Amino acid sequence: MRDWLGRIFLGCVLIALVVISGNGALAGEGVAVPPAKTQPEVQLPTLVETVTSGPYRLTRTLNRNSLSVADRLELTLTAEGPEDVVIDLPSPEGALGDFTLLENRDQAPKLIGKDRQQVSRTYLLEPYLAGDYSLPPLVVSFQSKNGLVENVKSEAIQFTVVSLLDANPNQTIGDIVEPVAQPLNPWIVAAWIGGGLFIIALLGAVIFFLIRRRRNRPPPPPPSPREVARRELDQLLGAGLLGQGLIKEFHLRLSHILRHYLENRFGLRAPEQTTEEFLTDLGHRRELFDTKLHGLLRHFLTQCDLVKFARSLPSTEEIDHSIEICREIIDSATTNATRESTS
After folding, report:
1. What confidence score (pLDDT) does residue 12 get?
2. Are residues 195 and 152 in the same domain?
3. What's the CA gap between 101 and 92, in Å, rounded?
4. Which residue in 48, 110, 144, 185 has a CA-CA distance of 20 to 30 Å to 64?
C-alpha cells in the first residue's frame, strides 16, 4: 500500500517539475526586453531674489520660472544675520497666496562666516487649475538681543500656470479604446492543469488510504464474561423487582446471571443442569474454586432453589447476602482462574 502511494506521489511530482521547467525554458527563449533608457535630468531655471537690510540678508529661491498644472513649486527662504539675533521665518498654513501649501521643511541652522548664522525653510506649493497665480511678499523678523525687531520683506511675484494641452498644442486626447485581450501562454495553462491533476491525485490517494485503513481496522474486542455479568447484575438491581415484591422473579434472574457467567467463563453447563448435577461436576474441577467459594456457591444456588421451588420468602438480609455472594463469585472466580493459568 505504501509503495503504491509512493509511486503515485513520485509520478505527480515529476509531472509538475516537467511542466514548470518547460514554462521556464519558454520564458528564457522569449525576446529580451531592452533596458529602459534613462532620461537625463533636466536642470530647470530658478528665480533668486536677495534683499539686504543692514546686517540682515534675505534670499528667496524658486526652483522653476514656469509652471504647469502637473508641476510643484519649491520656494526656499534663507535668512542670514548676526549669531545673537533671533530669526523668525513665516509659517503659513494651508495656502501661500494662490497656491496650496503642501508642507514646510526646515533646514538645520548653521554658522557662516564670523559670528553669523543662516536659517532656511522650504515651502512645497501646488497649483490647482491653470491661470494666473501670485506669491505674496514674505516677511522675516530679526530680533536683536536688546529687543529691537526689524522686518525684511521679499517682493511679490506673479506666475502663469498653463495646462498640459497649452504646453503642447499639437497633443490631442483620443477616445477610450476597448481592452485588448492578451493571448494565453500554453505553458502557463499546462502548468495550471498539471498542478490541478497533481492535487486531485494526491487527495484521491489520501482518501483511498484512509478508507482502506478504516476497512482493515480490527473490530473492538467483545466484552469479557465478567463485564457482561456485572452489567447484567447492575441492570437487575436497577429494575426495582424487590420493591415491587417480585422476589421469585428476582432470584430467577439472579441465578440465571451467575450460571451463564460460569458457562461463558469456564465452559460449564450450569444453565442446563440442576443444582446437584452442577455441584457434582464442579467438584471435579477444584482448580476453579477454593473451598470457601465452593461453599458460597452451594449456599447461593440452594437459596435460589428454595425461592423458586419451595416458594420460600427470604429476609432482606438473606437477599443482600445472596447478592454479595454473586458479586464475590464473579470477581473471585476470575482472579482464581487467572492465577491458575499463570502458574
Report:
1. 54
2. no
3. 8
4. 110
Q: Please classify residue 321 by burial: count the beta carbons closer than 10 Å to its beta carbon, then call 0-12 exposed, 13-18 middle and 19+ buried.
A: middle
Cα of first residue to Cα of last residue in the chain, in angstroms, is 43
CATH code of the domain containing 76:
2.60.40.10
Total domains present in the chain: 3
Q: Are 280 and 270 in contact (CB under 8 A)?
A: no
**Residue 30 to residue 212: CA distance in whole angstroms:** 48
Cβ–Cβ under 8 Å, residues 105 and 121: yes
Q: Please report where in the chains the cell 511542466 appears, as a residue.
A: 19
Sequence-separated contacts (24+) of 326-332 with Cβ below 8 Å: 326/233, 326/254, 326/257, 326/258, 326/300, 327/230, 327/233, 328/293, 328/296, 329/258, 329/289, 329/293, 329/296, 329/297, 329/300, 330/226, 330/229, 330/230, 330/233, 330/258, 330/261, 331/226, 332/289, 332/293
d(CA 95, CA 73): 13
Q: How far is the C-alpha of 223 from the C-alpha of 264, rounded, in Å?
A: 11
Per DSSP, the chain holds a count of helices (H) and strands (E) of 8, 12
Question: Using one digit for the tens of pLDDT, what is the confidence trace for 59-95?
Answer: 999 988 788 888 889 999 999 999 889 999 999 888 8
- What is the tens place of the pLDDT at every residue in 13-55? 555 555 455 444 444 444 344 444 544 444 555 778 899 998 8
322 burial type by CB count under 10 A (0-12 exposed, 13-18 middle, 19+ buried): buried
pLDDT of residue 16: 52
Q: Mean pLDDT throughout 222-244?
A: 91
CB-count exposure of residue 85 (10 Å: 0-12, 13-18, 19+):
buried
Domain of 239?
Answer: 225-342
30 in a structural domain: no
| Sequence-separated contacts (24+) of 306-310 with Cβ below 8 Å | 307/247, 307/248, 307/251, 308/248, 308/251, 308/252, 308/255
Tell which wins on pLDDT, 215 or 79: 79
For residues 162 and 159, what is the distance between their CA atoms, to the nearest angstrom? 10
